[in-house]
Automatic annotation (TrEMBL):
The keyword rRNA processing does not apply. It is an enzyme of class 6 (ligase). Its EC number is 6.3.5.1. GO terms for molecular function: ATP binding; glutaminase activity; NAD+ synthase (glutamine-hydrolyzing) activity. In the C-terminal section; belongs to the NAD synthetase family. The keyword NADP does not apply. It comes from the Eukaryota. This is Glutamine-dependent NAD(+) synthetase. Keywords: ATP-binding, Ligase, NAD, Nucleotide-binding. It comes from Pristionchus mayeri. PROSITE patterns: CN_HYDROLASE. HAMAP family: NadE_glutamine_dep. GO terms for biological process: NAD+ biosynthetic process. Residues 11-282 form the CN hydrolase domain.
Length: 706
């Protein structure tokens, strides 16, 4: 028949998104098996999972432990046994594998009870929060495989399996190649070489986390741009959710062919698993590649790539030629501000249900930062109840709809009131305006809210100090140490009270458990140390800790309009203040930007030049000359750079105790995972002298030119 002579080359391929969890071997395996079954049910011939999905991507130093390897092999054995239920399905999964004494990050391919290939990662990622070369080595023998002897202890029905940079080829001639996460981002991506060798399908199992705007580049420039340049079917599977760390994996698993997007799994949905598949016609790849003359010539000069054959057919002759092929879809892409409405709320939900706590506590000051945090919890409740309502309509269920064993309802106000507890902690220095902002917001989002006065607690602590030292500090003193101590004691009292309320609040509700305390220090404040060490910036989690003030203001504007929270308009237009100094005529006399000496917009520019711009004091000064010369004088730019670095140097120690924060921006100053720098600095004398000399030189040139 015509089908048997090669005219029919259609197959169905599936990508998966999983919310796996580091070291949750039982749960991870269940989710993997579930997606394999769903892929088979949809008629797929191949199921691709994310990178290191067996142990979970975020195991970190647990990858040093042999336990992690052994348990991964045990799970793989069970998956291999289960695969006999889906005899025509090629399964691609991810786990660590040790070969010749070295540990590799691998994709493992199996079919019908047999391992076909273990493919190690060629390029490891060590940027930003990634540390892959700490645990793994990259495979250096391109286009080469070796036979790896199987440990008989694991009980597989084979003595060996190919290990290395190989390409699989089915008995009906369909070739399957691989690249893993970072390889897509390298200058010479693996899929380019595979396409030039005529590979039909490229599988990318990935562990890519959310950063504002990153997903748009990944999809448009790399996935669609890559296969749009060289042709072929490109499968991309990514984790989605929180696997126990600061990052949120943002899914967007896709199927693309010849630069056309066929499938895109949603980026920020909360479900633990999602499978989507598409029928592709491999003849379209042949036609696409054959009409690009330069590619044909380049491919002809490449050496032949050895393929690893396996018994099994990828072409599905049960797919009728009359079956319409999928139309190209338009990518669903969010702006960075829209992503802030989705990513942190989803991360908060996954963290909450996995840590089995009873909700969140937010010290609500009436300012922009704590308002942003409380709003994110409200958007979390919106996201969850919306998902549950949709599932009810479709008659489906998912573990992500449950909290402490109870299925969540569809009333967003009810869920918010149950999970979000806020307190306005007033002092004699608090204004009427901030209290109104806090009360209005709490009412509109239906938080469980109350207000308290902290003055008696502050007075008690100062009384203890007086008994010991014989005096009480005063705001009237000319010694700045006294005024700072008075401000800091208020801030630290609020931290102590936050944890007291978080531990005991649910007793008054007749509910078990406690609350997670959420911090609300933004990245700009953390960068220059405009926080009190161990104040309300100290918390269990901080959803805005890597987000700058300018982005938070955009977020508040959007949330006010899109989600109907009008009180946010008054908050976002207010002047940021710590309200730790006495009022003057009942009005706030202290503002953040005046005390810092830099505006938040200026801090955002400086922060991004410092990192990821990788500029020190002098390079930053030169960069700001072209950015700010129309606005500021040379002396003003010099002053701002020096002021920033003086504040940064004396306050860097605060970053060593910063609250774990949602990672959303590359210029996060998180000392633990992202921004590794000293916390004891010299005075930058050489750098500052160089800046002063440059200013003098530029002034001299200006005088000469007049």
């Amino acid at each position: 028949s015509l089908q048997m002579s090669g005219f029919h080359r259609r197959t169905r391929l599936a990508v998966c998104t999983l919310n796996n969890w580091a070291l949750d071997f039982t749960g991870n395996l269940e989710r993997i098996i579930k997606t394999c079954h769903e892929s088979f049910t949809q008629g797929a011939r191949l199921r691709l999972g994310p990178e290191l999905e067996v142990p979970g991507y975020g195991c970190a130093d647990h990858f040093f432990e042999r336990d992690t390897e052994i348990h991964s092999w045990q799970c793989l054995k069970k998956l291999t046994e289960e695969s006999r239920k889906w005899p025509e399905l090629v399964i691609v999964t991810g786990m660590p594998v040790r070969f010749r004494g070295l540990l590799y990050n691998c994709l493992v391919t199996l079919r019908n009870g047999l391992l076909l290939l273990i493919r190690p990662k060629l390029a490891l990622c060590d940027d930003d929060v990634y540390r892959e070369s700490r645990w793994f080595v990259s495979w250096s023998e391109k286009a080469t495989t070796h036979e790896m002897k199987m440990d008989p202890e694991y009980g597989f029905d084979q003595d060996s399996v190919p290990f290395g940079d190989g390409v699989l080829q089915s008995s009906d001639g369909v070739s399957i190649g691989f690249e893993i996460c970072e390889e897509l981002w390298t200058a010479q991506s693996s899929h380019i070489d595979l396409a030039l060798r005529g590979v039909d399908i490229v599988c990318n199992g990935s562990g890519s986390h959310h950063v504002l705007g990153k997903s748009n580049r990944r999809l448009n420039q790399l996935v669609l741009g890559g296969c749009g340049k060289v042709g072929g079917v490109y499968l991309y599977s990514n984790h989605r959710g929180c696997d126990g760390d600061r990052v949120y994996y943002d899914g967007m698993s896709t199927v693309a062919q010849n630069g056309r997007l066929l499938v895109q799994i949603p980026q920020f949905d909360i479900e633990d698993t999602c499978v989507s598949s598409a029928v592709v016609d491999l003849r379209e790849t042949e036609s696409f590649r054959s009409r690009i003359a330069s590619m044909r010539n380049e491919a002809a000069s490449r050496p032949v790539l050895p393929f690893i054959p396996f018994e099994g057919k990828m072409v599905d002759h049960s797919i009728s030629p009359l079956t319409p092929l999928p139309n190209e879809i338009i990518p669903v892409q969010l702006s960075p501000t829209e992503e802030l409405c989705e990513g942190p709320p989803a991360w908060l939900w996954h963290y909450l249900r996995r840590c089995k706590m009873g909700g969140f506590f937010v010290p609500l000051s009436g300012g922009q930062d704590s308002a942003a945090v409380a709003t994110m919890v409200r958007l979390m409740a919106e996201k969850v109840t919306r998902a549950v309502k949709k599932a009810d309509e479709n008659g489906t269920d998912d573990p992500s709809y449950y909290l402490s064993g109870q299925r969540v309802g569809t009333d967003v106000d009810d869920l918010t009131n149950k999970l979000l507890h806020t307190v306005y902690m007033a002092s004699e220095h608090s204004s009427v305006d901030t209290r109104k902002c806090a009360d209005d917001l709490a009412r509109e989002i239906n938080a469980s809210h109350s207000s308290i006065l902290i003055d008696t607690a502050v007075s008690a602590l100062l009384g203890i100090f007086k008994l010991a030292q014989g005096f009480i500090p005063s705001f009237e003193s000319s010694d700045n140490r006294e005024t700072m101590a008075l401000q800091n004691v208020q801030a630290r009292i609020r931290m102590v009270l936050s944890y007291l309320f978080a531990q005991l609040a649910l007793i008054t509700k007749g509910r078990p458990g406690g609350l997670l305390v959420l911090g609300s220090a933004n990245v700009d404040e953390s960068l220059v140390g405009y926080v009190t060490k161990y104040d309300c910036s100290s918390a269990d989690l901080n959803p805005i800790g890597s987000i700058c003030k300018s982005d938070l203001r955009k977020f508040l504007h959007l949330a006010a309009e899109k989600y109907g929270i009008p009180s946010l308009k008054a908050i976002v237009s207010s002047v940021p203040t710590a309200e730790l100094r006495p009022l003057v005529d009942g009005k706030v006399a202290q503002t953040d930007e005046e005390e810092i000496g830099l505006t938040y917009d200026e801090l955002s520019v400086i922060g991004s030049l410092r990192k990821p711009g990788l500029m020190g004091p002098y390079a930053l000064f030169e960069a700001l000359l072209s950015i700010w010369s129309a606005t500021y004088s040379l002396d003003e730019i010099e002053h701002k750079v020096k002021l920033f670095y003086r504040r940064y140097a004396i306050n860097r120690h605060k970053a060593t105790v910063s609250t774990p924060a949602y990672y959303a921006e590359a210029y996060s100053c998180d000392d633990h995972r992202n921004d590794h720098r000293p916390f004891l600095y010299p005075d930058f004398s050489l750098q500052f002298d160089a800046i002063s000399a440059k200013v003098k030189e530029l002034k001299g040139q200006h005088i000469k030119n007049q």
